[in-house]
Amino acid sequence: MTLSTFFQHALTGISLGGAYALIAIGYTMVYGILRLINFAHGDIFIFSMASLPWQIAIPLVCILTVALGVLVEKSAYKPLRSAPRMSIMISAIGVSYLLQNLATYLFTALPRAYPEIPFLKKIFQIGPVSASLVTFITPILTLLLVIALLFLINHTKFGMAIRAVSKDFETAQLMGIRLNNTISLTFVIGSFLAAIGSILYFTDRMSVTPFSGTLPGLKCFVAAVLGGIGSIPGAVVGGFVIGICETYLVAMGYSTFSDAFTFILLIIILLFRPTGLFGEKNIDKV
Amino acid sequence: MKTSKKIIYTIILSVLVLAFLFFLDVNKNQYGMAYTVLQKGIIMAVVAVSMNLVTGFTGLFSLGQAGFMAIGAYVTAIFLIPSESIGDVYYISGVSPVILNFKTWMDSLPSWIQAISPYIALLIGGLAGAFCAALIGIPVLRLKSDYLAIATLGFSEIVRAVISSPQMDTITNGSYGLKKIQGFTSLFQTFAVATVCISFMILLIRSTYGRAFKAIREDEIAAEAMGINLFKHKELSFVIGSFFSAVSGGMLAMFMRSIDSKTFSISLTYDILLIVVIGGIGSATGSILSALLVTVSKEWWLRFFDNPLYIGNFQVPLFRTGFRMVIFSIVLLIVVLFYQRGIMGRNEFSWDRIAENLLKIKKLLRRNPKEGGSKNV
């Protein structure tokens, strides 16, 4: 591998990682607050497939994704708040199953071209490395959004409410925090970031099918676990690590193993450092 | 109810089922749809019960079924591709010499072994699945609920990636899949294998091991305090569950006669989960019933959802390809949200229960004779 191809792949990897990081934040926030793997998270953004001119499509995708995320929370997760863990997980899987089948029904299972966003696709050349604008924008946008999010979480009242609810439902309620509003807010933030992440992710890809959200979704969950579930900086680091490793695996000709790698990484982390890189230790009391 | 009576009822029921199967087997050209759908249904029943054994009875939320099925299916398929069509199947990248030697060795075996080769193939497929489960179980079973789910889901994706990778082309035929697999000779063969598998699992659930599994499901710490070796029992349940998943994968390969790695994607696991949830998490007979019910309605009775429907000249909206699966996912969500018990809850089929229910209905009928009682039933 020459130096320029090395940089080329590094750039692609960082860009992919940025998109993963944005989606992973949604997982980590929802898990932090509800202790629930939101299996539907990866499928929510598939509904951005409807082809429209991009000027309308981008805001529409964000609004629809957020609305869908909240709708899923209200209809499928809220009724089960006190149910056993397994029921909630099955409900999440059920929602993911429904969204996939609904997307198949609405858009058919055939791959579709992703709406073209011309200015993001413009090719730039820096020295020997060339890439489309989206590749440069993604990591920058990711970092900006993450800084904004961290400010929101750490320095505003909403953020304080979210942190309180994720520590303890009942005590948070006693302090006058509206539980359901806070949880919905978490889904709004997570879904919004997922929408941005998905636009950045799919712009570099040729086509989408109703099932193409599942695997990136699961990978982003792995990213969230790698960084330590519940930790936002952790999710970002995890997203970048997985994005970069995956790109290099593909570059070395092991493209079929790039998906497998993510899961092997997951099993290794869970064994040696179940709390992830930045996660806090949780001790189960009897 | 007396035991002798129960035995008589059971015998009558099995004779009826056998007669029905015999009828179908004789008239299979006329009832082709029922024939195929029932075969698929009973195969799904095996894997649903095996998932229930792990998830419903031991409380390990494992989503790796599709992966174990893939292992079983590929091992069985490689065994059962007739040696004369090996060249046709692997026409793109050639066949590994190991398989060729193995095929010539198999052809040299005495004919009675070749006659029972499908059973040996299924058994070895199952053992391969169990072996992988034993290996993966050692690290993975230390994880709790949702982490276990994600790790097993990941494992099944790893299996799929390995199977479809170009490095395995000469063994698994990469993304082209395997074809021309020797199929079942009759409906009885499928049902016999399925019955043996399911009976074994039900007997296991009713043994002391089964009680230990249930204790682990209810409360791990209490179970450990009662002297149950947690890891040993979890591993046992996981390995046996995976063995039967792999066997059912082999049966699926024999049923479909051609497989590829896409057959065993995550959505297959979700389909099985749907069956288990509808049947009742923690009820083996519920899983069997719902496997048959779900498969039959999905593949046959509810097909009309996918076709445009006309009443007179008016085309009913919504009816087109994919609508069926939307309905199914909505049913799953409704069951999860409002009717978590499923068909059977944690109960098993028993004549006593049926008799009890009949008595209840009779009492209700007697109490409100004027109203006819039908709305109370």
Secondary-structure topology with pairs:
The complex is a heterodimer of chains A (286) and B (377).
Chain A: H1 3-34, H2 41-44, H3 54-77, H4 85-107, E1 112-113, H5 118-121, E2 123-126, E3 129-132, H6 133-155, H7 157-167, H8 169-174, H9 179-203, E4 207-208, H10 214-227, H11 232-251, H12 255-272
Antiparallel strand pairs in A: 1-4, 2-3
Chain B: H1 3-26, H2 32-57, H3 65-80, H4 86-89, H5 97-107, H6 111-115, H7 117-140, H8 145-164, H9 169-172, H10 187-206, H11 208-218, H12 220-225, H13 230-256, H14 266-279, H15 284-301, E1 309-311, E2 314-316, H16 323-338, H17 351-367
Antiparallel strand pairs in B: 1-2
Q: Roughly what percent helix of chain A?
A: over 70%
Largest sheet of chain B: 2 strands, antiparallel
Quaternary assembly: heterodimer
Q: Tell me the major beta sheet of chain A.
A: 2 strands, antiparallel
Query: Would you count the extended β strands of chain B for me?
Result: 2
Percentage of residues assigned to helices of chain B: 55-70%
Tally of domains of chain A: 1
General description of the model:
The complex is a heterodimer of chains A (286) and B (377). Chain A is mainly alpha-helical. Chain A has one domain: ABC transporter involved in vitamin B12 uptake, BtuC (Orthogonal Bundle), CATH 1.10.3470. Chain A contains twelve helices and four strands. The longest helix of chain A is centred in the first third of the chain and has 32 residues, at 3-34. Chain A is globular and about 60 Å long. In chain A, 52% of the residues are buried. Chain B has 377 residues and is mostly helical. Chain B has a domain at 29-281. The radius of gyration of chain B is 23 Å and the shape is globular. At the A-B interface, helix 4, helix 10 and helix 12 of A face helix 8, helix 14 and helix 16 of B.
Offer a quick outline of the entry.
Chain A is mainly alpha-helical and 286 residues long. Chain A has twelve helices and four strands, in the order H-H-H-H-E-H-E-E-H-H-H-H-E-H-H-H.
